[in-house]
Design brief:
The chain is an alpha/beta fold. The protein has helices at residues 24-27, 143-169, 183-194, 210-224, 253-267, 281-287, 290-293, 308-318, 342-354, 356-364, 378-381, 396-400, 412-416, 434-447, 479-488, and strands at residues 16-17, 33-41, 47-48, 51-52, 56-67, 73-83, 85-86, 89-94, 123-127, 175-181, 200-204, 233-235, 243-245, 420-426, 456-461, 494-498, 521-525, 531-533, 545-547. It has three domains: 14-173, no CATH class; 180-208 and 401-548, no CATH class; 212-392, no CATH class. 28% of the residues lie in helices and 18% in strands. The strands form six sheets. A nine-stranded mixed sheet has the order 2-5-6-9-8-10-11-14-15, sandwiched between helices. α2 packs across α3 and α4 packs across α10 (356-364).
Length: 548
């Protein structure tokens, strides 16, 4: 073993041409791996934002095929796309939700993407994380499938993918990157702590404490339920024939818009420009007072006020929730005008009673078991995340969260060899809290002796909902700045982000205010700096703002 390399740029990747494609199906061999097909995809066979993706090789396969303890067939399904003209880099596309499907390995980035890792010349892999089928959590009843979903699929796929690249191009990747949003962001953070097999990590809205966040959603649903329309139901988002409680009447669209407008009135100008965006998130948490700034209903609710009970529940839910004994369930959530958006309501009022009970009951708990989300004892569920048994030998928290989460000093080794991490998070995310991500960064900074910004940069996205959407500039490419940081030593401070108005090739964001320019842009600023208006120049343009 030689000396530990000092932190710094690791050097640029070297380009190469694809040497073989169809022959990979029979010619590539790796332990527990079967290549099912390898086919040339001509330029334009795949498009992204109406632009053709260059010629590449599509490889489909599976690893570790087995019969599960539940009698079902399991495997880690994957696809890899290998560009004919390769930039020398590998990108692991970590997918979101409960995985379960092999998404197109395009390495999509930010909101409605205009580019992606594949389009930029990366070799890209995508997988189902060890179980196939729709977004159902019943794989969580099978112990090994739980582990694959938690962290083992990434650990198994990574060396195989690098070996496949070496076979296809005659050399392995010079630089490797892992990125994803939501559960994909969690995958990235977990690998950074466990495997440390990558040079750069692009971490979006990381559900790195996914069990706690899901339980907080259940707790929140129980808080909202008494304020909802009695007996109201709505269609289950995954099962068309099933009905679930409809909690949306507890905090209607008009009432959420009232809170958003009041917040804008108090906080919009804190960044120097009244533009419908609250850039100064931390300052706004102090400047805005839910109890006194929003009118309190003196009679019936009419959309122009909140009842005292509504204010109390919103404040409690935003604080993250506690058990009856006072134990924190999850993190506080920053208040942001993006709470008026439909995505915020979907997570709080629909997914909290449709999806979170399934993941909590079958993937994160020992022993597993289903329950009524509006009646379950939250206090009793929390210890089940840390429990183990003869069947489930690793707890839900252990398999889902990064080791050393409370004191991430173990990332010092990753930092010392020059690896980098870029993190982004929508401030209006309703399921995984941007404040939780901020607190993790502060812990990292303390663990690294105040030097976290030499390794990790956090870019809050004001107004953005979960991974995209909301009244926000949610179209951006943070992979290119990450590559430049890893390979050239240039740390990102301000990255341009654009709104997706009418005609945007990446798809229109229907939640943009009508007053916004279709291509309004802002700099995403590395925390703790804030996008601040310079005092002159068009307010629609990012160049009129500086990160201060």
């Amino acid at each position: 073993m030689g000396p530990t390399p000092k932190a710094g740029p690791t050097g640029a990747a070297r380009e190469a041409l694809l040497r073989q494609c169809e022959t990979l199906a029979a010619g590539f061999h790796h332990d527990q791996t079967r290549i099912e097909s390898a086919t040339v995809q001509p330029a334009g066979a795949l498009t992204l934002a109406n632009a053709p993706v260059a010629e590449h090789c599509l490889v489909k396969g599976a690893m570790h095929k087995r019969k599960g303890s539940d009698g079902r067939d399991y495997a880690i399904g994957f696809e890899m796309r290998l560009p004919k003209a390769w930039n020398g880099r590998f990108y692991y596309q970590a997918n979101g939700g409960l995985d379960g499907s092999v998404k197109t390995a395009e390495g999509a980035l930010g909101g409605g993407p205009l580019t992606g890792a594949l389009m930029q010349g990366f070799a890209v892999i995508s997988s189902d994380a060890g179980h196939a089928g729709p977004q159902t959590p019943y794989f969580g009843l099978e112990p090994q499938s739980r582990l694959d979903y938690g962290y083992q699929a990434v650990a198994k796929l990574t060396p195989m993918a690098k070996a496949l690249i070496a076979t296809a191009y005659g050399k392995g990747p010079d630089r490797s990157y892992l990125g994803g949003c939501s559960n994909g962001g969690r995958h990235a953070m977990v690998e950074a702590a466990r495997g440390q097999a990558y040079d750069g990590y692009l971490v979006g809205a990381p559900g790195y404490r996914l069990p706690n966040a899901a339980l907080a959603q259940l707790w929140g649903a129980q808080q909202w339920a008494p304020l909802a329309v009695p007996g109201a139901t709505t269609q289950h988002p995954l099962v068309p024939t099933a009905r679930i409680p409809d909690l949306s009447g507890a905090f209607t669209k008009a009432e959420r818009q009232l809170v958003a407008d009041t917040m804008l009135g108090k906080c919009d100008a804190l960044d120097g420009a009244k533009d419908g965006l609250v850039q100064a998130t931390q300052a706004c948490q102090t400047a805005f007072n839910l109890k006194t700034d929003v009118p309190t209903c003196k009679g019936e609710r009419n959309g122009q006020c909140l009842s005292a009970a509504q204010k109390e529940v919103l404040a409690r839910v935003s604080a993250g929730g506690r058990t009856p004994s006072g134990q924190a369930i999850y993190s506080a959530f920053p208040l942001d005008p993006g709470l008026a958006g439909d995505n915020w309501a979907t997570w709080k009022f629909t997914n909290s009673v449709a999806l979170d009970p399934l993941s909590v009951g079958t993937v994160f708990s020992v022993p597993p078991g289903m329950f009524d989300p509006l009646k379950v004892d939250i206090h009793a569920r929390l210890p089940m995340f840390s429990a183990t048994s003869d069947v489930y030998r690793e707890s839900g928290l252990s398999l889902m969260t990064p080791p050393g989460n409370e004191n991430p000093v173990n990332l010092a080794k990753l930092k010392d060899r020059g690896a980098k991490m870029v993190i982004y998070h929508g401030v209006a995310d309703a399921i995984f809290s941007a404040e939780d991500t901020r607190q993790w960064l502060l812990r990292l900074d303390q663990a690294l002796g105040g030097k976290a910004d030499s390794f990790a940069r956090f870019f809050p996205v004001p107004g953005m909902a979960h991974c995209s959407g909301g009244p926000s500039t949610d179209q951006f490419d943070l992979l290119s700045p990450l590559v430049k940081w890893v390979e050239q030593g240039e740390a990102p401070q301000a990255v341009k982000a654009t709104a997706r108005g009418a005609g945007n090739p990446g798809g229109e964001n229907k939640e943009l205010p009508s007053s916004w320019a279709a291509n309004l842009s802002r700099p995403l600023c590395a925390y703790p700096t804030v996008a601040t208006y310079k005092g002159s120049g068009p307010v629609e343009d990012a160049s009129s703002f500086a990160c201060r």
